Amino acid sequence: MERAPLKRSRILHMALTGASDPSEEAEGGHGEKPFLVRALQITLVVSLYWVTSISMVFLNKYLLDSPSLHLDTPIFVTFYQCLVTTLLCKGLSVLATCCPGAVDFPTLRLDLRVARSVLPLSVVFIGMITFNNLCLKYVGVAFYNVGRSLTTVFNVLLSYLLLKQVTSFYALLTCGVIIGGFWLGVDQEGAEGTLSLMGTIFGVLASLCVSLNAIYTKKVLPSVDGSIWRLTFYNNVNACVLFLPLLLLLGELQALRDFAQLGSAYFWGMMTLGGLFGFAIGYVTGLQIKFTSPLTHNVSGTAKACAQTVLAVLYFEETKSFLWWTSNLMVLGGSSAYTWVRGWEMKKTQEDPSHKEDEKSTVGV
């Protein structure tokens, strides 16, 4: 029996919502069991993403700025997490070679030519993870999402400057809401006496590097045959090498040598756990996109950021003003609105190809 072709609008709806082909559902059986199984899978995957991401942020905050540790070596913490990721990638590659079928992981062999081609991305990658950790070191977990909330704004700006892609008026409005939320958040942190100017600057730089990382990733992926895991491996290998002179120049090796808990199994266990979370976040992010969609992943990330902020305020027993909460809602609302607007524009373009011509006359950056 031949299946009727799907309309383009239906295909896009399936891609954005993660829904399956209704004809497949009809052929695959009846009853609600398939739907319930899929709903359970999505719930578990989204929950795994939330738990991994939030746990990683709180753990990194502990490693970077805990009074009980007194460890002032943010570059070393980042270096060690890159080292753990490198070893995990290589270990899984060896396991996949020894036990084919048991583990699905690409074969990894260090090729210096490929490492050199990935190097420009690795520099941006180093900036991204380093500035992220430095931002987290100097600001509270509750303000962390606002502090590095300008990624969407930089995406729009860099898309215009580097790719000459204009952005619609409605998308620009959502960016304005995000900028307003960021500005109000900084103002309220200052009013409460908890503003770290250095942490805020690192947050802005982290946002810029996240945007650049996305652009350079697209350029470099062909060098690693389109494999995200190979790219992760080479990025972290390059990072480990490039971090070594920084550790010497910034005196962190000396600070580490004087660290009282250097021989503590608990300390190294927490450091290794941080590296495991850093490795796992890449996997669970891909898993969430696979079981839902890129749009749903963005919405989930925004909701996770909201939950993370509330948890941080409760955990650290902080008291925040109404305007402080308003700034967070503006950032989260603006980010969600931007995701919705871009999804709506994609759908409109798919349904009406002539809309592409209209975009040329749309107000843009």
Automatic annotation (TrEMBL):
Residue stretches spanning the membrane: 35-58, 78-102, 114-131, 143-162, 169-186, 198-216, 228-250, 265-286
Bilayer topology annotation: Multi-pass membrane protein
Pfam families xrefs: TPT
Keyword Membrane (UniProt): yes
The UniProt record lists the keyword Transmembrane: yes
Subcellular location per the Swiss-Prot or TrEMBL entry: Membrane
Keywords in alphabetical order: Membrane, Transmembrane, Transmembrane helix
GO cellular component assignments: membrane
PANTHER family from the UniProt entry: SOLUTE CARRIER FAMILY 35 (PTHR11132)
Free-text function comment from the UniProt entry: Putative transporter.
Family, similarity comment: Belongs to the TPT transporter family. SLC35E subfamily.
Protein name (record): GDP-fucose transporter 1 isoform X1
